[in-house]
Design a protein that fits this description.
Layout lengths: L9 E5 L2 E2 L2 E2 L2 E2 L2 E5 L7 E4 L2 E2 L7 E5 L9 E5 L5 E6 L1 E2 L4
Length: 92
């Protein structure tokens, strides 16, 4: 049997539901892979978080991620390649 593996562009936050919190804000790891661009930039709420990055990687945030905060992975031309939305559930 032959298996066909397809690479896909994605951006995700780990963990899926963020519980590592301080003062109501969470911390997570952004992980990405781009099959559409050789370099990418991470954005949140329209602001660049990083400079150009390789097509595959990860980045740890500080304790500043809010529930519902949006993140995007963009190509050098500004095209959005993938998006992710944070789910933060701080447990007191």
């Amino acid at each position: 049997m032959n298996l066909l593996l397809l690479a896909v562009t994605f951006l995700r936050l780990d963990p899926t539901v963020i519980t590592d919190c301080r003062d109501g804000l969470g911390r997570a790891v952004l992980r990405w892979t781009s099959t559409d661009a050789a370099s990418v930039t991470l954005f949140t709420q329209g602001t660049a978080l990083t400079g150009p990055e390789g097509p595959t990687g990860s980045n740890v945030t500080g304790h500043w991620v809010a529930d519902g905060q949006s993140f995007s992975l963009r190509a050098p031309d500004g095209a959005t390649l993938a998006t992710a939305t944070a789910r933060v559930n701080c447990i007191d």
